[in-house]
Specification:
The chain is of the alpha+beta class. Helices cover 33% and strands 32% of the residues. Strand 5, helix 3 and strand 6 form a beta-alpha-beta unit. The longest helix is centred in the last third of the chain and has 18 residues. GO terms for molecular function: acyltransferase activity, transferring groups other than amino-acyl groups.
């Protein structure tokens, strides 16, 4: 099955195909915590949001990316972006990446549910044999979140790319393979159920 734009909905968050009209909501989400100031991430500054939307939509046109806008259901507020990227249409195989979320949404369960929606789509609808996740070696928060999913570290690409401040980035490459997916799904569902019981 070809990887193409799709809408994915859960109980906390709605992932919809990225559109230019999401610009203002995405700017407000990035300003929530001034996320672009974190040197180890690639969250666009407000002045660069239009260009980032255009960049992601270009990659969608070439079949390399399916970008999403994340919308929190309880208040219909846009809280960030994520994508299926580095798509190998032949396998198919995808990476879940280029993800960022407004600071006020951290710990709310929306990111975990977004991952559950994307992984379910990748494994159960697209038939991916594996899904990849990558992050900066020094981004301890992101690495911990990926490891909580149940993803395994495949390796570290040393001096792999340049961060936005010009420093060389070591990239941690994680993956989940299809045989691991049922356990990963159960873990995510348990976390989300427990979170909802506590709120």
């Amino acid at each position: 099955m070809k990887v193409q734009p799709v809408t994915l909905s859960g109980s906390l968050v709605h992932l919809e195909p990225l559109q230019p009209e999401h610009h203002d909501g995405l700017v407000a989400a990035a300003q929530d915590g001034e996320l672009w100031q974190l040197w180890y991430t690639s969250v666009p500054e407000p002045s660069g949001m239009a260009a980032e939307i255009e960049r992601r939509l270009h990659f969608q046109e070439t079949g390399q990316m399916v970008p999403f806008t994340a919308r929190r259901l309880k208040d219909d507020r846009i809280i960030g972006m994520t994508s299926l990227m580095n798509i190998d249409q032949a396998l198919p195989r995808v990476e879940i990446g280029s993800t960022w979320n407004a600071a006020s949404s951290h710990g709310s369960g929306t990111n975990a549910e977004s991952k559950l929606l994307l992984l379910t789509h990748a494994f159960e609808e697209l038939g991916c044999p594996a899904v990849e996740l990558r992050t900066h070696w020094l981004n301890a928060q992101s690495r911990a979140a990926i490891e909580r999913l149940g993803a395994r570290l495949d390796g570290i690409l040393r001096s792999h790319t340049r961060a936005k401040d010009g420093t060389l980035r070591d990239t941690c490459v994680y993956s989940i393979v299809a045989s691991e997916w049922p356990a990963v799904r159960s873990g995510l569902e348990f976390r989300l159920n427990r979170h909802q019981q506590q709120t």
